[in-house]
Amino acid sequence: MTTLDDIRRCAALLDALPDPALLVGADRRVITANSAARELFAATLDGTSVVSHIRQPEAAAALERGFAALAEGTGSRGPFEARMVLTASSREALWRVCIAPLRNDLGVPALLVTLRDISHIEDAEQQRRDFVANVSHEMRSPLTVLSGFIETLKGPARHDPEAQEQFLDIMEREAQRMSRLVSDLLSLSRVESEERVRPRTPVSLSEVLRATLAALRPQIEDAGLAVEFRDLPDAPAIPGDRDQLVQVFHNLVENALKYGAGGGKIEIDIERIDHVPAMPGPALKVCVRDHGDGIDPIHLPRLTERFYRVDGHRSRAMGGTGLGLAIVKHIVNRHRGRLNIRSTRGEGSSFIVMLPER
Ligand SMILES: Nc1ncnc2c1ncn2[C@@H]1O[C@H](COP(=O)(O)OP(=O)(O)O)[C@@H](O)[C@H]1O
Ligand SMILES: [Mg+2]
């Protein structure tokens, strides 16, 4: 027989577990439960019927298999698993329920029911699926264009040099788009895999910005924009990865050129700040500001997600891959820095990168 003491010992044991756990008798009533379970289901669980708490069909069926296993000699030994959606502290979460029959271990037959929140695993899986779907979609459109024109060049346009030249130009553009996509994907995966390793080589941000602007000179001239660069000549070198920092400002200035061209000028300035919340010491702050159309606030929180674009059509027409800001964010994270985006519709946008000096 199970004594009151045994149950108390079980309760103490269950309470030491971080995940919700319930001990249920063969009569389907809760013998004891830990505080995580009480938080999830109800303040008082002892003595209540477990089937009133675990009702979703898949989980209820797993419970029944558990009870069948308790009735000695029948059914398999378990444990039995199921997934169920429950709302915990007003957040909907996906739980894995595990039901382990304890036939003799406690003197009375009982089921140990444990739950684990697997929402984050599910979210990561979903993100991975979305990513693969996005990459495939981005690859498919240039490929469709290329195979279409190859057909045309082999058939109807075979003897039409004028059309051939025109089609080859389009094909070249689409091939370049694919190649940009592949190199952005490779950058992203490289930065992501190195994200935990903070780069330590001393880097001069002034030099990084001058090099970035020199490389973008042709695009700046094409866009007919004035770029005002306010340097900070005595800025200290910061620990970093020079080539990745060039990539950060290349992407930000390129975006300002593409989406902020209406504003006439782009301002870039370096500033030193003594204190940034959650950063240990002083930092260098670089602001890339345009006076273009700006971005609606609803888009701001998602702007650095891979393939997120405010206007997909416009981005693609400009040769964008939708990965630029995702790369920026990962590089800034790797540098233990911070990226802030401020924007007002009709007035322009500021992309602010803060990088710790030490
Ligand atoms: N300076 C800016 N002004 C307005 N919109 C911007 C600006 N920078 C980025 N965006 C928006 O954010 C989206 C994501 O940018 P990014 O990740 O660099 O991808 P891409 O430039 O390849 O489209 C862009 O498609 C654009 O809609
Ligand atoms: Mg971009």
Structure description:
The protein has 358 residues and is α+β, with helices and mostly antiparallel strands. The chain has three domains: 4-117, Beta-Lactamase, CATH 3.30.450; 120-194, Orthogonal Bundle (Helix Hairpins), CATH 1.10.287.130; 198-358, Histidine kinase-like ATPase, C-terminal domain (Heat Shock Protein 90), CATH 3.30.565.10. The protein has helices at 4-15, 35-40, 57-70, 119-154, 161-194, 205-223, 242-259, 312-317, 324-334, and strands at 21-25, 30-33, 80-88, 91-102, 110-117, 201-203, 226-230, 238-240, 265-273, 283-290, 338-344, 348-356. The strands form three sheets. Strands 2-1-5-4-3 form a five-stranded antiparallel sheet, sandwiched between helices. Strands 7-9-10-12-11 form a five-stranded mixed sheet, with helices on one face. It has a two-stranded antiparallel ribbon with strand order 6-8. Helix 5 (161-194) packs parallel to helix 9 (324-334) and helix 7 runs antiparallel to helix 9. It is elongated and about 85 Å long. It starts with a helix and ends with a strand. The mean pLDDT is 92. Adenosine-5'-diphosphate is lined by residues 251, 255-256, 259-260, 290, 292, 295, 303, 309-311, 315, 320-326, 349.
